[in-house]
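Incident log, structure service

09:12 report received: a user says their structure output differs between two submissions of the same chain.
09:20 pulled the input from the user's history:
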Amino acid sequence: MSISSINYSSSVLGAQIRNINQQLTDLSTQLSTGKLSQNYSGMGANEGFAIASRAQLSNIAAYTDTITNVNVNINLANTALQSLTTIRNTVQKGSASTAQDLNVNGQTVAQNTAAAQFGSMVGVLNTQSGNRYLFSGTAVNTQPVANASDIINGTTTQAGFKTVMAERQAADLGVNGMGRLVQTQTAGVINVAEDSPTSPFGLKIAAVSSTLTGATVTGPSGSPVSFSVNLNGVNPNNGDKLSVQFTLPDGSTEQIDLTASSATPTPAGSFAIDASVPVNPANTATNLNTALNTAIKKLANTSLVAASAVTAGDNFFNTTSSAMGAPATSQVPAPITGATLLSGPASSDSIAPGFANGDKITVNGTTLTFGVDINTNDSIQTLLGKIDAITGTSKPSTVHGGVITINTDNAASLNISSANTAALAKLGFTSSPITATQPPLRVGSSPASSATTLVNGAANTVKWYRGNDGPGSPRSTAMARVDDSVTVQYGAQADEDAIRRQLQAIAVFGTFSTSQTGQYSGGQVSALSLRVTQALTQQPGQQRIEDIQTDIAMAQNTMKDATTRQTQAKAQLQTIIDQAESASPDQVASELLSLQNALQASYQTTAKLAQLSLVKFL
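09:34 re-ran on a clean worker, output below:
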C-alpha cells in the first residue's frame, strides 16, 4: 500500500491560485490592448455581431475606393467637357464676327482659329484617366477620335474630310456652276429644271410665285421638278415680281426675288422692262432670263457652296443617314407630296395600288397596322411621322419632288418592310426591306459634277470616331456600384450628338477655303459663317454639352449621398464592434484589484498550511 503525497501543486488551493494568476494575466492583457480577448473564442456571445459589422466595414472601404476612383474619372471628364464649352464659345465668337478678310490660303482669321481649335478639341476628346479613355464608351482601351490631321487630310489609303468636302461641292455646283439646274429659253418661255429626279445634290425647286402682269407661271412639278415662266408677249408693270424658292442640301431655304423695273441703270435684284419703240416683250423675257440666270448662279456659288460644306460635314461626321425612294406619282397624275393619300378612289391625289385595312408596315421591329395604328386615307406625311416616331430620328423625313427621303439617326438599324410590296413600290421603294446607306457618305461616281448618288464610303474614308458605338445610353457604358443597392452611370462617348455637332461645325469652318480674289468668295465665307454660328448655338430639343455635365454631376451627387450614409454607418458599426470586443479600463482595473486581494489571501493561507506538520497537528 502506498500513500500519495499531498503537496501544493496538486491541491485545490493551488489550482485556485493558478486560476487567479491566469485571470490576472488576461486582465493585464485587456488593460494593455483594450480588447476582451486576442481570439474570437474569448470575445463572448456578441462577437457574431462584431464579425458581421466588420464585414460591412470592409464593404464600405471597398465602396470608398470605388467612389474615389470614379470621382477622379468624373472630374477629368468634367474638365474636358468644360474645355469643349470654351472652344465652342471661342469659335462661335469668331464665326459671328463680320471680318471677312481672306489670307493667301483663302481663309479668315476666325477660320484659322477654328482649325487650331479643332486640333485642341480632338486632344480633349482623347483624354485618358490612367490607361482608360474617357470618351470611348465601353471601348476604354481604344482612342476614341482619330488624329486631327488624319481626319482632315486623310491617310495614304483613306480620304479625309477635306476630300469629302471638295467632292460634295463639285457635285452640288454641277458642271455649269448652276447648282445642278438646267435653264433654257424657247420662244419667250423660260424653263428651269433640276437635272435629275433622284439626285441629292444641288438646288431643289421648292416653290414659285409671280405677280407679273399677263404672265403664266407653271410648276414646280414633273420629274425631274421644273417650272416655267411665259410672259405671253406682255410687258410686266414696274414693281411686278417673280419669286423662286429653293431648298439647299443642308435643309435651309433661299429665295430669289426679281422685280420688273424700267429704271436706268437696272437696280440690283431687278430685270429691265423693254423700253424700245415699238415695245418688244421678247426683250423683256430675255432680260428676265438673264437676271434669273445671274441670280441662280450667285445663289449657287455663295449659299449653296456654304450649305454643301455643312452637308459634307454631316456626311462625314454624322451617324444619321437616310433611305431615298425613286420618283413616284399619284393618280392625278402628279408627283406625290406629303399630302398624297395612302389609298383613295381613282383620279384622287393618292397612290394606286394603295394600302388596305389589315396591311402592315414593320419599322425596326415595330408593326404599324392599317385600320388600327394608321388609316388608309391618311397622308404620306402622316405615315412618315409615325415612322419617325419609331426610329427616333432627329431630322424629320421628307417628300420633295416626288421623292420620299426617310431619315434616321442610326443607319445600321433602319429596316422597313411590308407584305404589300406594290404599295411600297408606289411610294418609290422597289426593294424590301428598306434600309439606309451607311455613313460616311461619299459622292457616288466620277466626275463628281455629274454624280447622282451618295454611297457608303467606309472602305476608303477615314473613320473619325473609333470608340464604342453600340445601342444604349452613353452614360451606361461606365457603371460602378457605390453602395449595396446603388449604382452610378458616368460613361461618355465622343460621338454623342452635342459633341459630334460641335466637332463637325468646327471642322467645317476650319477646313473650308476659297479663292482670295474670287467673285463670290466673300459671299461664300459670309454664308458659311452664318451657318456655323447657328450650328454652335444651342437649339431647343438638342443635346448640349451642359446636359452631359449634368448627367455626370448627378452621379457625383449620388456618390456624395452614399458617402454620407456610409460615414454614419461606419460610426454605428464601429460602436457595435467596440461594445462586443473592447474591455472597459475601469472594470478591468476593478477586477484586477479584486483578484490581487484574492491572490494575496490565497498566498497567506497557503503559507500557513505550508508550516503544518504531523507533530504540530498532534
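09:41 both user submissions now match this output. Likely a transient worker issue. Closing.
09:42 reviewer note: Residues 8 and 14 are 6 Å apart (CA to CA). The radius of gyration is 42 Å.
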